[in-house]
């Protein structure tokens, strides 16, 4: 399919089946976008990098006016096209472009290693460097921060840190 032709639409997927819906739609020849986010989670007691949908339960699909939209309703994992009233609502192509650019920037960021130096990018300790100690649940980290001439353990959101260069 030509990248400049057609409009993007939002599909609502069945619960926890957005990956399955994407796979089935791609197999049928549709162009889909399911933005993902790589994050660290504790799975079975071990910290692992997992890839999750940025918008769980939804994915974007490019459709031309001449495309047969009928098979969408019977595709496994697909619930419905999102819209108002009778028609599907097209998505601004600028949003799709931004999602693709952010996905390219986020690729390849490695998992945090204990003892590694990180930079805090948000919150009251923004722009300070600290040492990664451990995960604290799914979305927080424990850092060792040299603050007021003492080593202090602080807990910050995982999204509030970045790897130091």
Summarize the structure.
The protein is an alpha+beta fold and 165 residues long. The protein has helices at 18-27, 70-74, 93-106; strands at residues 7-13, 31-33, 36-43, 46-53, 58-63, 78-81, 83-84, 87-88, 90-91, 117-120, 129-135, 140-147, 150-157, 161-163. It folds into two domains: 7-102, 2-Layer Sandwich (Alpha-Beta Plaits); 116-163, SH3 type barrels (Roll).
**Structural domains: how many:** 2
The main sheet comes to:
5 strands, antiparallel
User: Tell me, what's the shape?
Assistant: elongated
CATH architecture of the largest domain: 2-Layer Sandwich
According to DSSP, the number of beta strands is 14
Radius of gyration: 20 Å
Distance between the termini: 40 Å
Structural class, from helix and strand content? alpha+beta
Q: Give the CATH level 1 class of the largest domain.
A: Alpha Beta
Sheet-strand content, in percent, reads 35-45%
Query: Low-confidence runs (pLDDT<50, min 5 residues)?
Result: none
CATH superfamily of the largest domain: NusG, N-terminal domain
* CATH topology (level 3) name of the largest domain: Alpha-Beta Plaits
Report on the structure:
With 165 residues, the chain is of the alpha+beta class. 18% of the residues lie in helices and 44% in strands. It has 3 helices and 14 strands. β3 (36-43) and β4 form a beta hairpin. The longest helix is centred in the middle third of the chain and has 14 residues, at 93-106.
């Amino acid at each position: 399919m030509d990248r400049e032709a057609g409009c993007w639409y939002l599909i609502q997927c069945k619960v926890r089946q957005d990956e399955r819906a994407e796979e089935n739609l791609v197999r049928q020849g549709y162009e889909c976008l399911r933005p993902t986010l790589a994050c660290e989670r504790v799975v079975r007691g071990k910290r692992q990098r997992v890839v999750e949908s940025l918008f769980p339960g939804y994915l974007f699909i490019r459709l031309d006016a001449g495309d047969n939209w009928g098979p969408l309703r019977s595709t496994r994992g697909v619930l419905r096209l999102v819209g108002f009233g009778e028609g599907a609502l097209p998505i601004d192509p600028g949003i799709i472009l931004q999602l693709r650019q952010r996905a390219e920037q986020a690729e390849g960021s490695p998992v945090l290693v204990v003892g590694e130096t990180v930079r805090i990018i948000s919150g009251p300790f923004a722009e300070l460097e600290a040492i990664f100690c451990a995960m604290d649940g799914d979305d927080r980290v424990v850092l060792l921060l040299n603050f007021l001439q003492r080593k202090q353990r602080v807990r910050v959101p995982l999204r509030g840190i970045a790897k130091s260069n």
